[in-house]
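May I ask for a protein sequence together with how it folds?
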Amino acid sequence: MSFSRARTDQGVSGGNYVNNPLAVAGAPAGTTAAYYVPAAPLPTVVTDTTELKANARYAFAKQQAVHVGFSWQHMSSSNWGYDGLQFGGLAAVLPTTQVSPNFNVFTIAVAYVFQFR
């Protein structure tokens, strides 16, 4: 069994100057023409993965055996990047309605083994 957690922080620095929409002709003296908007870090993206594996081998003759295996994996994530893909997320863009991935995978394997000697 294994478990992993991935955390991705996207810290940013700097910022940008933005024009003041109230600084028009006829504005009061001393109105700031542009102001500085500092950048803010983006939310943390988290991905959790859990995996469980089991297998067995049964030899029913000297040269013959059966292998049986099972695995299960669950992955869940929280990613802010998918928020803009929803209806009403972005203006003038067709939404894809994609969501942050969350899934389960089950596998079962059976193998017959014959050894030539």
